[in-house]
Specification:
Number of helices: 10
Radius of gyration: 18 Å
Distance between the termini: 13 Å
CATH architecture of the largest domain: 3-Layer(aba) Sandwich
Helix content: 25-40%
Largest sheet: 8 strands, mixed
Strand content: 15-25%
Strand order of the largest sheet: 5-4-3-2-1-12-13-14
């Protein structure tokens, strides 16, 4: 694998890129390599549709050394402070929730604030998966449409279906909302809905400006549709071998799959 020079910022997706979807099980060698990269002055960013709480657990040994882009680009922060938050209006996310509940049988949904996520039924597969496998701080509430949420900073509403979320959203939900919010397919189970201007590409651009680093000095990794733009807009970018075809086409190179720790192989070449 060729050695990459001039990289000052590394940004990587998590699920399907570093680890199997919905797990906190990561090769501990990643932590050693990230520590060495940061000691060389290279900034490392975990960039995911996941909640910050989940990202922080996954990267616990290096959490104070890295940046976090969470909930699909709506939250940008360090372990100590929030740098930027994008929020949906109550009118938008509540109407999306109403439509999901009424028009999309077989789908579930939850909403996210900077620190906590909320859903209406703690017994559903979605709730248990987020809580037990992803390590989310997710809480059950009787009704997400009640007035008490109107003052919350709601950054994202995510639609869930066990296998075919993109297809379930296609007939009614996506056509109605695609011009009103940013919609990003995040694996076969998820459709993340966030404010316009809140996506992975924009979040990476914010950190580039914040750190004084150019796109040409940035290396990105991903596997899914919501990674395409940040892959296209980096000087170096890799899709993992298990990525969707259109994602591989958007990246400048392909590395081995997450099962082979392909991203780790590239990161080690930077040391």
């Amino acid at each position: 694998m060729r050695r990459i020079l001039m990289i000052k910022l590394i940004v990587t997706d998590i699920d399907g890129t570093l680890v199997k979807d919905g797990t906190l099980d990561i090769n501990p060698e990643y932590m050693d390599v990230i520590k060495k990269l940061t000691e060389k002055g290279i900034h490392f960013v975990a960039c995911s549709g996941r909640q910050y709480c989940s990202e922080r657990q996954l990267f616990a040994p290096v959490k104070d050394k890295i940046f976090f882009i969470s909930d699909g680009g709506t939250l940008i922060r360090t372990s100590e402070e929030i740098l930027k938050v994008h929020t949906l209006s109550a009118e938008i996310w509540k109407n999306m929730a109403r439509m999901a509940k009424k028009e999309m049988p077989g789908c579930d949904y939850f909403i996210s604030s900077p620190d906590v996520s909320y859903a209406e039924n703690a017994k559903t597969p979605m709730f248990r998966w987020l809580h037990d496998s992803y390590g989310y701080d997710i809480r059950e509430v009787p009704d997400l449409l009640e007035p008490s949420f109107e003052n919350e900073q709601i950054m994202k509403i995510a639609i869930y279906n066990t296998d075919h979320c993109e297809e379930k959203c296609a007939p009614v939900f996506t056509p109605y909302w695609k011009d009103k919010v940013n919609m990003a397919c995040a694996g076969k189970e998820w459709m993340d809905c966030t404010p316009h201007g809140a996506d992975k590409k924009s979040a990476v651009a914010f950190l580039q400006e914040y750190l004084g680093i150019s796109p040409e000095e940035t290396c990105t990794f991903g596997d899914n549709i919501n990674d395409i733009e940040m892959l296209k807009n980096a000087g170096y970018s890799y899709a993992v071998a298990n990525a969707r075809e259109e994602v591989q086409a958007a990246a400048k190179a392909v590395c081995p799959s997450y099962l082979e720790d392909g991203v780790l192989q590239v990161l080690k070449s930077l040391l």
